[in-house]
Amino acid sequence: MVIDLNADLGEGFGIWRLGDDMALLDVVTSANIACGFHAGDPVIIRRTCAAAVDRGVMIGAQVSYRDLAGFGRREMEVDPEELCAEVLYQLAAVDGIARAMGGRVSYVKPHGALYNRICRDPEQAEAVVTAVVDYDRGLPVLTLPGSAVHEIAAREGLATVVEAFADRAYTSAGALVSRRSPGAVLHDPAEVTARAVRMATDQTVTAVDGSQVPVDARSICVHGDTPGAVLLARSVRDGLVKAGVTLRAFT
């Protein structure tokens, strides 16, 4: 049993800080670094990339809609060519900084509303896939099982990696419950840890209606912007190791 543990990092902006990136980088094996469109700025990106390289943590480009005010959590109607160009822009920027720090971007993970939209919208999914292929066909894309991204990426020879969310509620269809709904984000370390262990060992998660949803994931996400994120991430890591799961990045 081998699992990657990823978290969204570098999500501050200017003097505003969100989460404890340095502490989380001591826990996770992959870091989804904000690219400046929903959060992050050049200084934060540089510092986060440098810290990830120092710790041997893999760097992912967390591309987003251009939505700083809404933290990338507002779904948007964007022309496919424009979306493709914006994803390409973000990817190239973070990879350039990562390389200057001695590392590189090794995968792509869309953020927030874009992540959820491309799971069900082939047009926007194709725009994101095209951007990644244009930049580097060797970069896998993290997405949910059943996502529209899998088929489109396979057609282009682009790898995808299935991930699961330990701290998010699921619908019976395997989608994430909207953050607008009560209970969409889970905060109890014991509950989140138990879900992560079950995801890794049994490849299932209990949906909000009590049904069992298959999640054959190679990576598990814990969010870095929730209260108690570091404690929660440490609990998940410790629980996985105790269950005999090997923590290793997928790239």
In the CATH scheme, the class would be Alpha Beta
CATH homology group = Glycoside hydrolase/deacetylase
Mean pLDDT: 96
Tally of helical segments:
8
Low-pLDDT parts are: none
CATH architecture: Alpha-Beta Barrel
Rg over alpha carbons: 17 Å
CATH domain fold name: TIM Barrel
Class based on secondary structure composition and strand pairing = alpha/beta
The number of strands is: 10
Distance between the termini: 16 Å
Tell me the domain tally: 1
Task: Give the H and E element order.
Answer: EHEHEHEHHEHEHEEEHE
Account of the protein in words:
InterPro entries: Glyco_hydro/deAcase_b/a-brl, LamB/YcsF/PxpA-like. It comes from Streptosporangium subroseum. Belongs to the LamB/PxpA family. This is 5-oxoprolinase subunit A. The protein has helices spanning 21-25, 42-55, 80-100, 112-120, 122-135, 148-155, 189-202, 229-242; strands at residues 2-9, 30-34, 58-62, 105-108, 141-143, 160-165, 204-206, 212-214, 219-221, 246-247. With 251 residues, the protein is α/β, with parallel strands linked by helices. It has a single domain (2-247), classed as Alpha-Beta Barrel (TIM Barrel). Strands 1, 2, 3, 4, 5, 6, 9 and 10 form an eight-stranded parallel β-sheet that branches. A two-stranded antiparallel sheet has the order 7-8. α1 links the parallel β1 (2-9) and β2. α5 (122-135) crosses α6 (148-155).
